[in-house]
Automatic annotation (TrEMBL):
InterPro entries: G_SEPTIN_dom, P-loop_NTPase, Septin. It comes from Nothobranchius furzeri (Turquoise killifish). It holds the Pfam family Septin. Gene3D superfamilies: P-loop containing nucleotide triphosphate hydrolases. This is Septin 9. Coiled coil: none annotated. The lineage of its organism: Eukaryota, Metazoa, Chordata, Craniata, Vertebrata. Keywords: GTP-binding, Nucleotide-binding. The gene is SEPT9. One of its GO terms (molecular function) is GTP binding. Residues 1-199 form the Septin-type G domain.
C-alpha cells in the first residue's frame, strides 16, 4: 500500500522554492538586468484513464496546486478509452472541477476581452485534453510519425482525429505561452511575493518591539 498522505508537498515546495529564488534575485541590491527565471509557469496534471471520476487524491492535489500554479489537466493513455467513454469522462471531470472550485488554465477571471473569452471558452470545453504519448516513430503512408502501434493500426500522436495532443501542444507553446507566463508573474508569483514581504515586515517589526496592532494599522 502506497502512502499518498501529503504527497503534493514536494511539488508545492519545488514551486515555492523557484518563486523564492526569483524573489531573492529581485530584491538584491545588485540584481541582474535579466533575472534568471526558473519559476514553474504551468503544471500538466495527468489523470489516469479510469473512465469513472476523479480520485479524491486528484481533487486534493489539483485544489492545492491550482492556488500556486497554472494547471492544465490531461487524460493520460486516452487510447484505452472508447470515444464515448472519453467524452463522458471529460464531461465528468469538468463537472467535478467546477463542483470543487478548482480553477484550471485558462481561468475565466483572467479573460481580457470578448475575443479572449470566445477563444478560451473553446479550450475550456475541451479540457481535460485526451492525449496519447509515444517516443516511437512509425512509417504511415510514406511519412514517419510518432505513434503507438496496435493490431488495429497506428495511433498517431499528432493526428487530431486520434487524440488531442496537438491541441495541448499548441496551447502551451504556440497560442498561449506568453499568457501563461503573464498569469504566473501577475497572479501566482505576485501572491507569493506579497505574502513573503509581509512575513519579513512582521518579523522585523517584532524584532524591533513594534506592537501587533501598530503593525496591522501600518500594513492597511
Amino acid at each position: 500500500q502506497i502512502n499518498n498522505e501529503n504527497c503534493w508537498q514536494p511539488i508545492m515546495k519545488f514551486i515555492n522554492d523557484q518563486y523564492e529564488a526569483y524573489l531573492q534575485e529581485e530584491i538584491n541590491i545588485n540584481r541582474k538586468k535579466r533575472i534568471p527565471d526558473s519559476r514553474v509557469h504551468c503544471c500538466i496534471y495527468f489523470i489516469p484513464p479510469t473512465g469513472h471520476c476523479l480520485r479524491p487524491l486528484d481533487v486534493e492535489f489539483m485544489s492545492r496546486l491550482s492556488k500556486v500554479v497554472n494547471i492544465v489537466p490531461v487524460i493520460a493513455k486516452a487510447d484505452t478509452l472508447t470515444l464515448e467513454e472519453r467524452d463522458s469522462f471529460k464531461q465528468t471531470i469538468r463537472e467535478e472541477l467546477r463542483a470543487n472550485g478548482i480553477d484550471v488554465y485558462p481561468q475565466k477571471e483572467f479573460d481580457e476581452d470578448a475575443e479572449d473569452r470566445m477563444i478560451n471558452e473553446k479550450i475550456r470545453e475541451m479540457i481535460p485534453f485526451a492525449v496519447v504519448g509515444s517516443d516511437q516513430e512509425y512509417q504511415v503512408n510514406g511519412r514517419r510519425l510518432l505513434g503507438r502501434k496496435t493490431k488495429w493500426g497506428t495511433i498517431e500522436v499528432e493526428n487530431i482525429a486520434h487524440c488531442e495532443f496537438a491541441y495541448l501542444r499548441d496551447l502551451l507553446i504556440r497560442t498561449h505561452m506568453q499568457n501563461i507566463k503573464d498569469i504566473t508573474s501577475s497572479i501566482h508569483y505576485e501572491m507569493y511575493r506579497v505574502r513573503r514581504l509581509n512575513e519579513n515586515n512582521t518579523a522585523v517589526a517584532h524584532a524591533n518591539g513594534v506592537p501587533e496592532h501598530h503593525l496591522a494599522v501600518h500594513e492597511m
